[in-house]
Specification:
The structure holds two protein chains of two kinds. In chain A, α6 packs across α9 and α13 packs antiparallel against α14. Chain A has three domains: 199 residues, NADH-ubiquinone oxidoreductase 51kDa subunit (Rossmann fold); 74 residues, Ubiquitin-like (UB roll) (Roll), CATH 3.10.20; 89 residues, NADH-ubiquinone oxidoreductase 51kDa subunit, iron-sulphur binding domain (de novo design (two linked rop proteins)), CATH 1.20.1440. Helix content of chain A is 44%, strand content 13%. Chain A is built from 17 helices and nine strands. The longest helix of chain A is centred in the last third of the chain and has 18 residues. In chain A, the strands form two sheets. Chain A has a five-stranded mixed β-sheet with strand order 6-5-9-7-8. Chain A has a four-stranded parallel β-sheet with strand order 3-2-1-4, sandwiched between helices. Chain A is α/β, with parallel strands linked by helices. Chain B is α+β, with helices and mostly antiparallel strands. In chain B, the strands form three sheets. A five-stranded mixed β-sheet of chain B has the order 2-1-5-3-4, sandwiched between helices. Chain B has a two-stranded antiparallel ribbon with strand order 6-9. Classes of the chains: A alpha/beta, B alpha+beta.
């Protein structure tokens, strides 16, 4: 399937500093159309389109909105999660840099649909350079008469704040730590009020759906994954960058045909907590049914070492664990230390068993998505590249004392 | 009020709306171990020792914070649950300073009790130990954070019961630590005659400073050949 630009339609076409160029490209038409519809009808349209969250979990967007709409209370919030922290993702940055207006329009429609008067854009600390651009885009959009008040909040550089409950804690001024669930944000989110929290890319799809209709949107993609997905491809490829593909396209098309990778050993899909797939699985379609994540694609060629990759990933996760729940706090540290031993050539056969047991316990007991998904690189690499671990054990190296 | 009917370990039980799995289980004599949970304090869900299996759920759920819903089928002691709890306790013990034989609180230590109940012995994980120097500046409280398991009961007790709000959590991941001010040794007059956090600490991390005049009664144990 070819590249198709739905989300990135305006990127490189309009001037992100000037709303006039956006208005000339059908800007805010969807918002005007949505306001003629009943809020329930807007939600119905999003549900019919089959749009699923693009942040990695793939929760049906319309359902989330409906839950928030039905939650009792006058005060509701919309949050746009622009805390793009996953390793190897830069698609949201590309979107924010080139087309902030569509995002704002998406937020305005979301706020109208759920009945929120206040919205937040949670901007990653590392994207501080985008603050001026985004602030200007928000104020230009407000001049066009948006009812919702959009406020930009900056993060302070924590990976875990991409997790929705930690993000809300951070907006409230607390320490960026996950909360226990239930209650879920559509019932009790920001300041315990009904809240919807959507990824940048999810909200980018909204104006397209409203303007062109749910039927148009649901034509593309697979049965359970409608529309397109924006991928950030990096690593050992000739042409790294942002690509938008129809959901269900094979990994081969993205990595080899478009990005020009050669001698691929493995691909890490979805960042640090994402899946690792070997070259033999290169024909896997990219969809919610199979493998997707937040759209980070990191390609490793045959010169790369598995242990090295997994160790570095776990080291990152141990560093970024918030430290609240014990399986994640202690477990990521334990895994990182075991892998450090492998890296030094001091790994032992029994360590693999320990790693597997740890992975099993962490993935079902941790408080939030970070701890639950943290063992994924370990389990995947043990499944597909077990001989690399065995090789490291055999090599030995330094003598333990 | 409507009753909610659930199944815990094969037993048909009913509770009122808003009740958590743990509350209902304990009310009916089913024991689920806990560490960070205290009925007097706000919920946290951090230690994950109270996890139980709920049929249809992808992961285990924390029983202390998950409300019961109609028709829930809960297993509190399935092999999966026990294995997970053991790994968590093992992890906590692995970084714990581990000198139980010279710990004042060894016989009332909740971590030790939970470990004993789950039959966890020496942990298999070789990770670094938490080491912090003992904070004995305050005449009212001694903090040995090497023994801390980050259950945050002291943080919540100080805030919610003592209303003094002296503690907070700082740093991330393995380095997370309960701190006072900007990580300074605890030396507060507000702690005088309070002791609330000490009574909430599950391990020997918080204790009253020992006074030389309060020696133990009885003869010391002397082994003669």
């Amino acid at each position: 399937m070819p590249e198709k630009r739905i989300v990135l339609k305006n990127c490189g076409v309009i001037d992100p500093k000037n709303i006039a160029t956006y208005l000339a490209a059908d800007g805010l038409k969807a918002w005007q159309k949505a306001r003629q519809m009943a809020p329930e009808k807007v939600i119905e349209e999003v549900k019919a389109a089959g749009l699923r969250g693009r942040g990695g979990a793939g929760f049906p967007c319309g359902l989330k909105w409906e839950l928030a709409r039905k939650s009792p209370g006058d005060e509701k919030y919309v949050i746009c999660n622009a805390d793009e922290g996953e390793i190897g993702t830069f698609k949201d940055r590309y979107i924010l840099e080139n087309d902030p207006f569509t995002l704002i329009e998406g937020i305005a429609i979301a706020a109208y649909a759920v009945g929120a008067k206040q919205a937040f854009i949670y901007l990653r600390a590392e994207y501080h350079h985008l603050l001026d651009l985004l602030t200007s885009a928000v104020s230009q959009s407000h001049e066009q008469g948006l009812e919702v008040n959009i406020e930009i909040r900056e993060g302070a550089g924590a990976y875990v704040c991409g997790e929705e409950s930690a993000l809300m804690e951070s907006i409230e001024g607390g320490r960026g730590e996950a909360r226990y669930k239930p209650p879920f944000p559509p019932n009790r989110g920001l300041w315990q009020k009904p809240t919807i929290i959507n990824n940048v890319e999810t909200l980018m799809n909204i104006p397209r759906i409203i303007l062109n209709g749910a039927g148009w949107f649901s034509q593309t993609g697979t049965e359970k994954s409608k529309g397109t997905k924006v991928f950030s491809v990096s690593g050992d490829v000739a042409r790294p960058g942002v690509y938008e593909l129809i959901l269900g396209s094979p990994l081969r098309e993205l990595v080899i045909d478009l990005a020009g990778a050669e001698k691929v050993k493995m691909v890490q899909i979805g960042g640090a907590t994402g899946r690792i797939v070997p070259y033999t699985m290169i024909d896997t379609p990219l969809s919610f049914e199979t493998i997707l994540g937040a759209g980070s694609i990191i390609v490793y060629d045959e010169s790369r070492d598995t242990i090295d990759i997994v160790y570095r990933t776990l080291e990152f996760l141990a560093e970024e664990s918030c430290g609240k729940c014990s399986p994640c706090r202690e477990g990521t540290e334990a895994m990182a230390e075991i892998l450090a031993r492998f890296d030094r050539g001091e790994g032992r056969e029994k360590d693999i068993k320990v790693l597997e047991e740890l992975a099993r316990a962490m993935s079902i007991s941790a408080l939030c998505g970070l701890g639950q998904a943290a063992p994924t690189p370990v389990t995947d690499s043990l499944q597909y590249f077990r001989e690399d671990y065995a090789k490291r054990i055999k090599q030995g190296g330094k003598v333990r004392c | 009020m409507d009753e909610i009917r659930v199944t815990i370990d094969g037993k048909q039980l009913s509770g009122h709306p808003g009740m958590t799995i743990l509350e209902l289980a304990r009310e009916n004599g089913i024991d689920i171990p806990t560490l960070c949970y205290r009925p007097e304090l706000s919920l946290l869900g951090a230690c994950r020792i109270c996890v139980v299996e709920v049929e249809g759920s992808r992961t285990l759920v924390g029983s202390c914070h998950t409300p019961i819903t109609p028709g829930m089928v809960i297993h509190t002691h399935s092999p999966k649950v026990l294995e997970t709890r053991k790994v968590i306790v093992e992890l906590l013990l692995a970084s714990h300073c581990g000198a139980c034989f010279m710990c004042d609180k060894a016989n009332i230590c909740e971590l030790r009790q939970v470990a004993a109940e789950l039959e966890v012995g020496l942990p298999r994980f070789e990770i670094k130990k938490r080491y912090y120097p003992i904070e004995d500046v305050s005449p009212y409280i001694e903090r040995n954070l090497s023994k801390c398991v980050l259950c945050r009961r002291c943080v919540r007790a100080c805030r919610q019961i003592a209303k003094r709000d002296l503690f907070a959590v700082a740093y991330r991941g393995f380095d997370a630590k309960v701190v006072v001010d900007s990580d300074r040794a605890l030396d507060k007059e507000a702690c005088r005659d309070c002791d609330i956090c000490i009574s909430f600490c599950p391990t020997g991390a918080l204790s009253k400073p020992r006074k030389l005049s309060e020696e133990k009664k009885g003869k010391p144990l002397v082994i003669t050949s």
